[in-house]
Amino acid sequence: MNEQQLIAGCRKGNRLAQKELYETYSRKMLGVCLRYVNDRETAKDILQEGFIKIFIHLDSYSGEGSFEGWMRKIMVNTALEYLRKSDVLREADDLDHSWELVEPDASTISKLSAADLIKLIEALPPGFRVVFNLYAIEGYSHKEISEILHITESTSRSQYARARQLLQMKVNALQ
Questions:
Q1: What are the angstrom distances between the C-alpha of 144 and each of 7, 151, 153, 156?
Q2: pLDDT (tens digit, 9 = 90+) per residue, 112-166?
Q3: 119-144 burial, b if ≥16 CB within 10 A, otherwise e?
Q4: Range with the lowest mean pLDDT among 79-88, 100-109, 117-126?
Q5: SS3 breakdown of the chain: % helix, strand, coil, rounded to 5?
Q6: 130 and 138 in contact (C-beta within 8 Å)?
Q7: HEC states along 103-136?
């Protein structure tokens, strides 16, 4: 089945279409969940919750834009809901410090694989990791992040700056 047939089948409640949709996208969506929580079991729980929401709200997908992008947004929002409920984001305090960013050596970065970079991002404290993912990977603005996470824009900026600083320190330590 192609994507449109899968969507149509899922809208009709066809279990085989739902299974195929899940099997087609679950690995990629688990990767999205793992960017927000380090624990694989928690990420799997978020993935399951996200797919439940996808199946329940499938009629709200208009067909415009990427279906995968629509699903990714649901997964990100589900992960953020989990983090808010578990109070992990509370540590995101409002700091207006100017952090000195030391640029890592470009040759060190070029030697890192994507998996190595992902591991470095996963090692960030949860509040830093969430803001970094939303800003640098998902493309949200600091204003949007502040609304999503119920923090100030300056907190979003400082969390992002601190995340970058920590990443740069970790990359420099690899030299």
A1: 29, 10, 8, 10
A2: 777 788 888 888 988 899 999 999 989 999 999 999 888 899 999 999 999 999 9
A3: ebbeebebbbbbbbbbbeebebebee
A4: 100-109
A5: 75, 0, 25
A6: no
A7: CCCHHHHHHCCHHHHHHHHHCCCHHHHHHHHHHH
Q: Residue 60 is encoded by which pair of tokens?
A: 């709200």
| Contact status, residue 167 vs residue 116, Cβ threshold 8 Å | no
Percent of the chain with pLDDT over 70: 85
Q: Which residue has the higher pLDDT, 116 or 45?
A: 45
CA distance 48 to 64: 25
